[in-house]
Amino acid sequence: MAQAPEGEKVLVRCREAAAMAEEKPPQLVDYFVVAGLTDSSKALDEESQQPRPARPSEPITDVAVVIHSQGEEVPQGFTCIERSTSGHPVDLNASLLHSPQMYICYKRGRAKPPLIELGVHCEGKDRLKPGYELVHTTPYSRSANLTSGAPGHQRTFLAYRRATESQGHSALGITDICLVVPSKGENTPHTFCRVERSLNTGMWGPAVFLCYKMAMSKANTLVYEAGLISRYPEQDSESFPLPESVPVFCLPMGATIESWPLDTKYQVPLFSTFVLTGASGDKVYGAAIQFHEAYPRAWLSEKQSLHLGLLSVVDRRPITSRSVQTRRSICVLSRWPFFDVFRKFLMFIYRYSISGPHVLPLETHISHFMHNVPFPSPQRPRILVQMSPYDNLLLCQPVSSPLPLSGASFLTLLQNLGPENAVRLLLAVLTEQKLLIHSLRPDVLTSVSEALISMIFPLRWQCPYIPLCPLTLADVLCAPVPFIVGIHSSYFDLHDPPHDVLCVDLDTNTIFQSEEKKLLSPRSLPRRPCKVLLAALHAHFQQLDEMYNKPVEEASLEFLLTDYDLVHGRRKQLELEIQASFLRFMACVLKGYRSFLQPITQAPSDTTHDVSSLFFLQGFLKSRERAYHKFYGQLLRTQLFTQFIQECSFVSDRHACLEFFDSCVDKVQVELEKAEDTPLLELDDSHGSEHTVFIMPPEEPLLPDGTEPPALYCYDSFPVLQAELFERPQDQLAPPLCQPKSSAPSSPAPRRTKQEIKAAQRVAQKYSSVPDMWARCLLGHCYGLWFIYLPTYVRAAASKVRALQTAYEVLKQMESRKVVLPDEVCYRSLMQLCGQYGEPVLSVHVMLEMKRAGIVPNTVTYGYYNKAVLESKWPSGTQGGRLHWAKLRNVVLGTAQFRQPLRQRQRESQAHGSTLPVIKALGVLQPGSDSVATLPASLRQLLDEAGSSEDGSLSDISFQTDESDQQALASAQGQPGLGVRGSKPAWHDENHNSLGGTPRRGLAAKLQQLLSPAKRPSLRHTASVEQPSTRRATGSLRRASEHAEPPPRKSPVESLLRPQERPDSTASESSISLGSEFDLSDTSLSSFSLRQSSDPLPEASARLELPPVEIRLSSCSRCQTCNSLVHDEEVMAGWTPDDSNLNTSCPFCSRPFVPFLTIEIQDFPQPPSPSDLPRDGTEQLPAGQGPVLSDRYQCLALDKAELQPGIPPALCNGCMDASVPRSPALRSSLVTVAYLSPLVLRKELESLLENEGSEFLAQPELVDSHPIIYWNLVWYFQRLGLPSNLLQLVLASKHGQPMPQAQAPEGPRLCVRLFWDVLTPDPDSCPPLYMLWRIHRNSAACLQSWCRHNCPFSLAFLEAVLSHVGLGEMHKAIALFLETLAAQPSPPPLQRSVYREILFLMLAALGRDYMNVADFDKKYRAAYAKVAGSLGKEELMRRRAQPPSSKAIDCRRSFGAMLEC
Q: In 763-802, which positions are buried (b, 16+ CB within 10 angstroms) versus exposed (e)?
């Protein structure tokens, strides 16, 4: 690949600077908290709650089977279950006659470890699970076979599993057993687990199921409200203060004081998670572990000791066989749900506190983790933290997803609920039911609760949401509003659930629903989407079962032999697939909702924010099938849907997520019976890398003698944190100069969302192979660049309204040119500016333009539109008498203005005794016409003097007419106008186009503009009238389409201005400057005032004045492989749709190379003063003469002569060229930057604005620090004639010069010229044909430093080529060119193709206005095909005679008017 040392290096430096200026990465952990029992803790009064019947405090330790028909009695200490929950008898063998009557008995106590699971085992069918034991016999040594009376049946026994001896005092155990008979209408009691095999295995009789309840069987316990013991840091952060309720969530069931037997082993710390939601909806994630530690007996009162069983009841003697424990918690708070990482860190801190002694205090490890562990980023996706020689943790970058960040685990949801219950809960959440989720595992509560509110995306839960509810906040369960609350299952040991609450038991996978309030059936959901969802969930549930329910040996072996990343990747992929299944369902449910959004088109009122005003509810409901109206009716009445419509209608922080959902809606098809092949969610690893950052543990200090210090830190319990032992964060130790520069993000409106960027890449990839669409795609990105710059342009404009109107005209111009817009930034940026500057009506017009163009606004654009309409001040519709008085005032002022010229004429008539005749039409000014003879002698003399002027123009004459003259001229020309008595001097470019002056110009300035070819643009205003410098620098917007360009209008004035002897094919008039064209079509030339011939001519000397700064730009680049020049449209055709690729493809050798923009800045420090101009006219051009094509003999003589340096060139007729400046030597600087594709430039510009802000585009530092971006923007804006203030930045950069004190207040003038060919010719190459033509003609263009070559192209050859082309014999011109080159023994090196040589020659000889380039292309293609028949296409391509590709021609046609050559 071709190297671009300068361009690529500068661009890389720009990207590195942007990366250095990015914002400070987020902090991993914000707070570390220690919670537990404090002096201010209050006892939790259980009597205030509604008590329920007392439950046994001791767990069940044994089960047995007794046979009453055999005379067996219930053993001592056992309890027999003889009836079901509703009182029905539960004989286990009731299905058979004369069968033994068997019953189940159980025993409570603490002498043995409790039972933790029950089951029914059938020999021959089941495989006994590890740890289970069977009840083979009754207490009286008879067989306990439950099917003993049924011949031919396998033997069935009761099975149980007991807790191990090592489990702690507060381990979970079975606390209740019951039997249910479903045929009698009995259901599993709340919080009970049911064994899925019936105890009655016979063919007759009802099925009987065994149910048991798991709970923490605790005795001798005091419960208090948890308080804050210590925290770090001690000061609250401004952005995130520490909530006061954190200790309560760390210990949701309270801080306890418990009495244990001395031989009880300590319980393993319990991990829990919780979520705190702020008022603004921001979430804070907490991770905590609960543990027990010794509590001094001396701190207990007598009442407390009695309750804990530490004193005897009779004599109050201390009981020494028991110990006292208290429950504490340590917790970290973060904005990120890294629960696994936090669990490992907290467990390390806990083990560190109970071991020791240590050299470093505990506070050092806490501060080291909080301050020195960086947040994972795309550049460092893995952070491996080594906390000790035996403890480490791996911190990975969060999954890049367009969905909101949450701590949801869809794997945990599906594991604990199953597919059917998951769909039932989805329906409950969508209809805003009261959901109470409970489990004995507090960490599971948060994961499942987060998944429940994530599965309804894009809807957002608006009601109370507490994933882990503390006991002190349990009153929320009685709230009269919908809620989602998670609570520990031990809550139901104390209280019954409310009757109108839907209880979900995650431990038993059951949903408990009261009879009072029935939930909608899942059949009310749309059938096809629900069917696809259930099928996907069943498939994922099977994968989960295979992944987690393998034998232990197989699972561990797989983990050892498989890479960790592969296993972790499987989990992430399955998680996304489950989430995508719910996302597809929601997309199908809300399909087509955007069609029913109602935009605001009138002034806002009190009902503007109502959902009925923003959304057509009835229309949306009627668009759904009637069978599902009940579900949709409930959904439309929820707060979920109301908030969703408001977020779609106005600007919100979720616009990126909503736009992603809209893209999902477009992908799904509701009528399908299976999911689409295109996944809605994918793992985004494109920005990741394999880089892993290692964080070492904190270093242990050394003593002055180099030895290790003694280990002094040992803790009996978790200590109270001491602030002086914490280490200071490293960023505070670093000097301020080393800190990265904070970014200054710009307005969010011009930014593209991720979905828009992806869509733009797909569009570019699609259209890169379609020639005409590729050109329109590039054009769309160019307009996108200007609209990104638009806020800067409007901010600098004196008239904001006119600048916004200009942008609106640009939008209409884009539609007329059928531009392919890759996104909606153009419309969105203008809408936001309309709201910012109070133009809501214009914003409505922009929305109508979008609809007229067939563009449906996305969520982001729609939100900015409604914001602009809602927050702007609308014009009053009833202004009353003020409007009428304003109209009357304008009429009076207009009448006074019209009467001024009449009074002036009357005064002059009285003074001179004569009046000026009324000029009826412009035709009287034509020399030789009959109307000239009717003029007075003074006027005829004036016209004669004008005809003998230096250049044959009337630029030095201004006219005055009275009111009647103006009306007559207006009727003749078709446009009214007002006379202007004079105009200020103005700068002019090489085409005599005005570059300055006042907005109210007289005819003198207007007539000079007719000297250059003018086209009628599509826009009337390009910049504010109050900004002449902007108008001078940018020119006017004009129609750029070649085929739609009408010929310039002929007026009688033009025949007067152009001498009849001078041909129109003068080479010096053929160049087109894009930056210096003005709109003359809307300017009235009908009204002018006639001035005395003796009056001074203010513009007489302005024609020869040159602008102080002239900027020339060219995109013509040389291919480093074949040394060919590749011109602008060929460069565009060779670009790729990759927005990171700087290369283009050479059309001759097909090799990639980096094109360049060449900029030449010419500085004229001292323009000639009027006093230095010639006064005797000796050096002036004779009237009516100029270089003509018939002066062949002089041209042939010039062909053999060399130009002498230092002598100004003469024209063919021996006259000097008046356009050559007589000024001191100019200062010229050359700049070369990479020529970027609009796709690449847009990406770089967005990155620059993200880091520097939009204000940076108005600062002169942009020119010097980001030259690639700056000059490319200048090129494209000038190429399309789009107004900007970028050129003014050159004067303040290193390329400008200090402004003199005597400079005009409006600043130096700039002239911008865009060239088709190279600015600096290669001295080793032969001059092109068009330059040889100009050398033969001795025009001003020959001033370029072309070296003389022994080239074979003479003037006769040039005329022969022109003759062949003019006669329609293009193939002869091509053959002549090729034969002339082939006849040379050593042909000179040519860098341009044959097509380019002939095209440029025709433009130089005939002029742009007299040549149809499209017709030339058609003729050249036909001629090429004709010549290829004899020479062959391969030979012609070798000689570079092929025409440009259709892609290049379409690029030239789309970008409009051609450049100078």
A: bbeebbeebbbbbbbbbbbbbbbbbbbbbbbbbbbebbeb
